[in-house]
Amino acid sequence: MGVLGSVGVLGSVIQLGVGMSEHTEEMKVSGEGLVAKVKELVREGNVRRIKVKNADGRALIEIPLTVGVVGVALIPIWVALGAIAALAADYTLEIERKAS
pLDDT tens, 73-95? Predict the structure, then answer.
């Protein structure tokens, strides 16, 4: 079990689990940039999971990403994100990454 701490980095909140193999960060995005930002994160390749939260902090969608998820398998996710982006102006992305 690790001790959790939090560190602010360029507007993102990063929580590090000591002795754990991943870390979590949060970033604010606009509705207009939601799909583009999630696509960018998927392309990075070290992201395990993405949660999209509304302004109240309520999770709207959780996207688990595994090694084999590419292209056509993500089309339903892009459609869902497009619909979610149309509902409000601001969202928070919670990104779980593999530790490097």
Answer: 677 887 888 888 887 788 999 99
